[in-house]
Design a protein that fits this description.
about 5% helix, elongated, 3 helices, six-stranded antiparallel β-sheet, mainly beta
């Protein structure tokens, strides 16, 4: 009897869920093409422009905004599901949106799929100020039931672009925002395997009624059947605007030439602000904003990283002239140039001698003039940084103070006294450098500890700002060998910190290490062989990311004949996105190089190297190299320097300048860049 029942069950199953041949199909085909399906393009063709849709450019990218009268903007599901009427069992959604701030309890729909004659949402996506809800209808449950899957603590309503990938497979859902770590959810209700789309329509930006209509900007809305699209988008240099499929209408300006007249193919507007005066900062917050340089006769637009020329008299570097000799009291190991709002432009010099110590100079009437003296102990470097409205300077002291303490000092700007005052002392060991940076809104400081007595293999330290105590506290220790410099940078959503290791006690031929921020700490990402590395400089040219190391000295205690160990190649590396590592791009012969500085003039990019010693003399020329594309960096100017230690570039309303410090004489020089 049991065998008969089993046979009947198998026959019944074959009748219902049998092969395509058993169901009389000539050949099986999926319900829709297994390719990305651009839902947004279905309601927003290139032309003619549908009513109720405006094209908006914001922060350097275009998106669509729907009017409240466009709440019924829709198309039949059969336009996508051409071979059968079943929604994919596994799929992902790719969405790029820009959403303004919104009330806490308000919900808006990005899209829905609704059956004609019904109010039930078969599939949909909606959001609130801090949540994202994925909705689906399961007819297998009693009388049908809508399931809502909620992702909490999602910050989309911040007036910034964000790209989301929502992957659905059975009981599992995964949400990736801006190529960051995915948020995984397992639910108790299976996404239906037989969700019928027959007689259904997709509604873009609504649920078929005005209430809950989408009010932000929508740039990308793509359904990808059968796969998780995250790998197609990530990693990305612009994760907030990662592209899978963007409607053709958004890929170019909505203009056409008709009867010798320019006409708009879409209603179009752009958020625009024009800033006058000296060069402002260019970050993602200023993206698509303009800067009018009246002095340089140019108009620039911010692309989120740098100012791009829109209209200007093409400025080019002609030559460099000596502008100011700044007496510094003693040899100067480093410079830090910074601006304090409503106070002016300053430079802090890290001076070797304890008396009178280091100094801060202010730019007054086109020159740096003494402003404040600070007691330091063989200072090596300064770093300026801010936390909220607080303004700080931290000095790297190389030797003990008068009380036998080996400590570096953080100073805080006093807005009443208009001076820097001691704020916090931190134990360091022959500190060479500080790096300040922020990750996810939290502030950090990293110190390069060079040695403890004769031991160069010691820990350098990353400190984290404690908002409660208002002090920096140890967050992580990192083993280093004669650490000389830290450099922080970001690539998309990832944060990196690279150390210049100089000497391990026997050799300068050692690895310097690049670390990546993962799980609340820095972890080793890549090791790079260096020779007495004294500095790292990261810079970008268009979409390419470079990392230059200044190699100062080739020495090994086991080598009897050293030859000229100061004439050595410094190296420029380029980030290879595919290999996910930095690879050698160019060797440049340098002479005990201790610093690189990247700067731009007009559309040209430059690197200047601090050559400090050629094996016999400190009177050696430092060199400016110009970027020449396929040729790499080519030497264009040779500048006489004496014991050159640090280069800094700055701009004022009167022009652009370079400044270098000397480790062998108590004079730092300001050079003016003459342009044509």
């Amino acid at each position: 009897m049991s065998a008969l029942l089993l046979a009947c069950a198998l026959l019944l199953r074959a009748g219902v869920h049998g092969s395509p041949a058993a169901r009389g199909w000539k050949s099986w085909r999926p319900c829709t093409d297994l390719r990305p399906l651009d839902l947004l393009a279905e309601v927003a063709p290139s032309r003619p422009a549908p009513s109720g849709i405006r094209m908006i450019q914001a922060q350097g990218a275009r998106g669509f905004r729907f009017s409240t009268s466009a709440h019924a903007l829709s198309f039949p599901a059969s336009r996508l599901f051409v071979h059968c009427d079943l929604f994919p069992e596994e799929f992902s959604l790719v969405i790029t949106v820009k959403i303004d701030s919104m009330p806490a309890k308000k919900n808006e729909y990005i899209f829905t799929m609704i059956q004609e004659g019904s109010k039930n949402v078969l599939v949909g996506l909606r959001y609130s100020s801090s949540k994202l809800h994925f909705l689906f209808w399961n007819k297998d449950l009693a009388n049908g039931w809508q399931t809502r899957v909620t992702f909490r603590d999602i910050s989309l309503a911040d007036n910034q672009w964000h790209t989301l990938v929502l992957a659905v497979s059975g009981y599992s859902l995964s949400l990736t925002i801006d190529c960051s770590m995915p948020l995984d959810v397992v639910v108790g209700t299976l996404f239906p395997t037989t969700l019928s789309t027959k007689g259904s329509r997709f509604y873009i930006g609504s649920r078929k009624r005005r209430k809950g209509s989408f009010t932000g900007l929508l740039r990308q809305l793509v359904l990808v059947p059968g796969s998780d699209a995250t790998a197609e988008l990530c990693p990305s240099l612009r994760p907030q605007l990662a592209v899978l499929v963007v409607p053709p209408a958004l890929m170019e300006l909505p203009i056409k030439l008709e009867n010798n007249e320019i006409q708009l193919t879409y209603p179009y507007e752009a958020d625009m602000r024009v800033t006058l005066g000296t060069r402002p900062v260019c970050t993602k917050n200023e993206s698509a904003q303009f800067w009018l340089d009246a002095f340089g006769k140019g108009l620039f637009i911010c692309n989120g990283m740098e100012w791009i020329s829109v209209l200007e008299a093409k400025e080019r570097l002609d030559y460099v002239e000596e502008y100011q000799n700044l007496a510094t009291g003693s040899e100067t190991m480093g410079l830090e140039i910074f601006t304090i709002p409503n106070a002016g432009l300053f430079v802090a010099t890290a001076n070797r001698n304890t008396r009178p110590g280091s100094a801060i100079y202010k730019w007054i009437n086109g020159r740096f003039e003494p402003y404040q003296y600070l007691r330091t102990y063989q200072a090596q470097a300064w770093r300026h940084f801010t936390i909220g409205k607080k303004i700080f300077l931290v000095v790297a002291n190389f030797e003990e103070n008068g009380r036998g303490e080996e400590a570096s000092v953080i100073y805080k700007w006093n807005h009443w006294k208009l001076k820097f005052l001691v704020y916090q002392k931190i134990l360091t060991h022959s500190a060479r450098d500080w790096e300040a940076f922020q990750i996810d809104g939290e502030s950090f400081l990293a110190v390069a500890n060079h040695r403890e007595e004769d031991n160069h293999n010691i820990n350098s330290v990353v400190y984290k700002w404690n908002p409660k105590t208002q002090m920096f506290e140890v967050n992580q220790t990192i083993p280093t060998s004669g650490a000389y410099d830290w450099e922080y940078f970001t690539v998309g959503p990832y944060s990196f910190l690279v150390v210049a290791n100089t000497f391990n006690g026997t050799s300068t031929r050692i690895d310097s290490h690049l670390y990546i921020w993962l799980g609340g700490m820095f972890r080793l990402f890549q090791s790079i062989m260096t020779f007495g590395a004294a500095d790292w400089e990261v810079f970008r040219i268009h979409d390419r990311i470079f990392l230059a190391v200044a190699n100062s000295h080739s020495y090994d205690s086991g080598t009897l004949v050293q030859n000229n160990s100061y004439a050595i190649n410094s190296v420029i590396y380029e980030l290879n996105i595919t290999a996910q590592m930095f690879v050698k791009f160019q060797d440049i012969l340098t002479f005990s190089a201790v610093d690189w500085e990247f700067f731009s003039v007009g559309e040209d990019s430059f690197l200047v190297v601090a050559n400090s010693f050629d094996g016999s003399s400190f009177l050696v020329k430092s060199v400016i190299y110009r970027w020449q594309g396929y040729e790499g960096f080519v030497a264009v100017h040779h500048l006489p320097t004496f014991g050159c230690r640090d280069w800094e570039e700055f701009n004022t309303s009167s022009g652009s300048y370079l400044m270098y410090s000397s480790a062998k004489e108590p004079v730092s020089k300001v050079l003016k860049l003459k342009t044509v």
